Model the fold of this input.
Amino acid sequence: MNTKAVIGCLFGDEGKGKVVSYLCSQSPNSLVIRYCGGQQAGHHVVLRSGLDHVFSNFGSGTLQGCDTYWSQYCSVDPIGILNEYDVLANKGIVPTLFVDERCPVTTPYDKQYNIMLNNANHHGSCGVGVGQTIQREQDNYSLLFGDLYFPAILKIKLELIRKYYSFKTYFDEFINSCIDLSKMKNIIPVPNIPNSTHYSNFIFEGSQGLLLDQHYGFFPHVTRGDTGIVNIQKMGFEPQEIFLVIRAYQTKHGNGPMTNENLSCNIQPNSYEKNFDNGLQGKFRTAILDLDLVKYAIYKSGLQDKSNVSLTITCLDLLDEYCLTVRGEKLIFKSKCQFIDKIRAELSIDKIFLSHNPFPEMVEFLS
Done:
């Protein structure tokens, strides 16, 4: 059994989805494991055939025919699963999703309260209720995926959650959606990870980037989860290969600190970008790559000095000039090779892959 982990290095939107899709294309008999976050992910995968999809509730190997396991460390959105399942089915894809019975379930009440909080504090939440779901679980008002298969229990717990938030609205349609979900043959509740003998690879797919980790990101602009390898280790695995992913420049969707926005940069618009501005999450921002942030993220996540770590750089073809900052100094390079060599030297990572926009091919770069 080979185990691989795909982890974003900065604030998300690095290209994790297409790296996962590539790895699945090389090993079709793989199980994609979502090990952190939840339905707030938006991983855009584009195939050369023209087929594309933005994955939030299924793994990014789905277009390659790979199954998904949603681990207990992820929140789960029943309505989101149903909606995305229908979208995939309309594209001719019939996905299989294993969901750990211990996954906390996001309700419309969590989403509603999440939106209210974000409107008040502007932390940059995408408003799908992940953080609020985790907080409610910690307050012992629990609703887990396994509960959805007991309609009476579901109704009792949902009513207690309504009172927890002091909302007057009733969401009977949510109960109906959960009942519909519980009848689907391709959405399978499981007590733990599926039998490993059925798969040749486990590919762990990160959700948000390392600098959104709840322990070392820039609070309060973080996600309620561990975005490094902590949850993978809790599941009893040590990844044999770790693919850290960055764009050739910084990205951030929504509010919160990001460096280098005051520096001029020539980044071409990405016609395949799905991270549109919205009123809730905020503006999609770009800036010159800051290697100090990358080094900090790697250090805080404990991934420095690991021989099995490689770096994947995406969207390099969108730079009009090869530039980055180190210790606050902007450096401009004459060639792509010099740009990559500097990254390799600063991060002490020898193995570097390039992933060209928008397709998920990865080419190892040799100096």
